[in-house]
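How a chain folds remains the central question behind the approach discussed here. In the encoding step, the backbone of a single protein was reduced to a row of integers, each denoting a local shape. We regard such an encoding as a compact summary of how the chain folds. The sequence in question and its structure tokens are set out directly beneath this paragraph:

___
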Amino acid sequence: MKISAAVVTFNEGANIERCLKSLDFCDEIVVVDSKSIDNTVRAAKKYTDKIFLRDFTGFSDVKNHAVSKCKNPWIFSLDADEEVSLALKEKILQTVSEKDALDGYLIKRADFFLGRQIRHCGWEKDYQLRLFKRSKGSFDGKPVHESVLIKGVVGKINEPIFHYSYPDSRSYFIKMNRYTTMQADEKRRSMLVLRMIFAPFFKFFKMYFLKAGFLDGFQGFALSVYSGFSEFVKFAKMMEPATVPGDGAILLRAPNWIGDAVMMTMVLKEAKRFYKKVFVAVSGAGVKAVLEGNPYIDRVIQYDRKSLSSTLAAAAELKKENIGTGISFSPSLSSYLFLLLSGVKVRAGYAGDMGGVLLNRTYKQDPSHKREHVTEEYKKIMYLVNNSFDFSAAKQGLYPAGKAAHKPGGRRILMAPFAKFGPSKMWPMEKYIELIKMLLNRYKTAAITITGLKEDNTFILPPGITGNKRFRDLRGAGLDVVMREAKNASLFIGNDSGIMHMADAFETPMIVIYGATAPYWGGPIASKAEQLYEGLDCQPCFEKQCRYGHYECLKKITPEAVFHKAVKLLG
């Protein structure tokens, strides 16, 4: 009998290859990814082409979705931080080939913690139902600590799955924060204060003494302590709705760049979950345009940060709202002053640019700055005011004014050849021209649109392109028009720009060309993306102009390379 492996992932770049490589005995591998922003999907493509993107709505939900995509009669569910032992591979193949095979099987897990297999602490009896007949089983619907419900007879397999859930303390606390939040949301219990006081001690005592965790050495002691602390955090979070700021308002000072503002939208839904009113202050019409209509914003307030009168007027208006909490995603002195002038009591943001003086909660960019995605910094700043935020299912959102245009048949390619940031982000225009010619010639019914600002009209396109009925020039068009075009496009091709992030928010397939910046800092987080990045010694530099004047990071990328990626995505 054939077997389908079902794996769900989210930012599992460090584990996914080990996991999928161990599934070589299965006839099919299905991966459901909850919009990872690391290399998870790229790595998974080496082992399967059956990869599906889905928002995280609870473990049971995404795992059932993975099962629904499987076609074979037997399902083997494996987590990304797990590996199938050689003995288990042989046992599974033997089991499913038997005529009298049962409907499902519990499989033993060998759990590792801080590099050591835990043989006590209660973990030695860890059996999980992972192998089952597709027609007989499904996950139980619990968002956390999910399990498979079987309509039939269940057996047990002792050959192990290796479980590398916690290679270090950092990974433990990251997962603990996520799981305890989900557990707290699941159910509110009585006597929370007593439970918060005594449950950690009983958990430690049970694991370390009653379950002989002391025989697992330092790892057994650390695991028992951490597990006790996890109990404390869980019950503390259950109490938070009565004490966490949620009955007031929060003011978010948006970034000044359109692309950064688009990425900021991923925190809005969670902000609205805790605060009755969400105000967003912006200093530019472009940023305001991408935020207007967002259902998680109560009001967008625009002011001119270069005008003292405009700044004071907007701040005075906000001061009437008695806003208790404010966050600046713009690392600038003027933004921090705006929060102060608005009467915000709890002010959070970056430590630089006088943030340490004007703010009372600051995030100091660590050595990973510009080596991790900018949205990770946004989350860390949000955690400064409330560590109960849960961004595991966060996603970007744009809501352009007016009805979205009907997407006609045929391919629609949107190009953004320009970048307001500067020439260090712009792939040479002559290369775009050559690429447009190649695409128009390859796809006889495809429509190609370019976007940009009015000042970008100084770049003259050849008559052979502008005279083509399938070519449209939207330079100077309003952002609402551009957003609808990004939403309806079959493919986006362009530089690292605000328009790229708009297309990303709509999950439009894309090809992104990098110069001064890099994919791991401000690249797409939602879309199916092909990215061209040379990775030269001087790259990324984050300078507006090439300090050497050669722009080799952009010139080395050929139209042919972009064209081949376009064919791959368009078919």
Summary: The first helix runs from residue 16 to 21.
